[in-house]
Amino acid sequence: MKHHATDAHTLAAAYALGALEDDERQAFDAHLQACEACRQEAAEFEATAARLAAAAAQPPPASAKTQVMAAINEVRQLPPRVPATVATVPAVGGMLRRRAVPLALAAGVAAAALGGIAVWQTQNGQDLKDQTRRVQQQLDTISTVLAAPDAHTVHGRAANGALTTVVSSDRQNKAVFTAANLPTAGPGKTYQLWLDHDGVMRPAGLIDHDGTVILTGNPADAGAVGLTLEPAGGSPRPTTDPLLLMTLPT
């Protein structure tokens, strides 16, 4: 679908994820030459998408290669691809493109997260299917936040050296938190996230290792995201000094 020039500032996420058509990408490349805000936003989306994919990725089991190689001779080859006639759909403006972006992002991140699961899913029963469904739901939510027209990205560094990213959308009233190089919490400990509401810290979820989580609570009304080290299972209120207190964009 095509866009008017006034839509250019909403395409940073789609550009970073390779979801633009060739002519749109060329036009946005030209737009980036004159728009510092879009250059920064596109770079942040690229870095965040790469970090999310790495954080969600799950290595296949050691037996996967052996199973795949053994099954090759049993798999029927696909017939030659024949180009299909594609019906032309009239453009309906930028809104349809923005609705398609979450699907593109979900496909990209899910490919990294779920690539090793398909080979051995049937051998691990319903538990693995449920786990896959939960991961897919999480990825869908993450993609919706990342592709939101009002998505904002902030980066920070915790006192323990962890690199952090928060992407938030007031319109979606959701935010995702990503951590890299997060040291092990230690026995009986966990990292807990907080949303700062006018000086009141409210629990927003747990994170035990490098990865991405969806913040719980009401991020649209929060002024900052905090990170503390808490007893396993979390605490109703922070019991240690914050390792991170990152202001959310307004």
Structural notes for this entry:
- The protein is flat and about 65 Å long.
- The chain starts with 11 loop residues before the first helix and ends with a strand.
- The strands form two sheets. It has a four-stranded antiparallel beta sheet with strand order 1-2-3-6, covered by helices on one side. A four-stranded antiparallel beta sheet has the order 5-4-7-8, with no helix packed on it.
- 36% of the residues lie in helices and 21% in strands.
- The protein folds into two domains: 5-73 and 93-146, no CATH class; 152-247, no CATH class.
- The longest helix has 22 residues, at 125-146.
- A hairpin with a 5-residue loop joins strand 1 (152-157) and strand 2 (163-169).
- It has helices at 12-16, 22-34, 36-56, 64-71, 94-114, 125-146; strands at 152-157, 163-169, 174-180, 189-197, 200-207, 211-214, 224-231, 244-247.
What average pLDDT do the residues reach?
A: 75
The backbone outline, from C-alpha atoms, is flat
The secondary-structure class comes to alpha+beta
Total DSSP E strands: 8
Count of individual domains? 2
Radius of gyration: 21 Å
What percentage of residues falls in helices of 4 or more residues? Answer: 25-40%
Biggest sheet descriptor: 4 strands, antiparallel
Distance between the termini: 31 Å
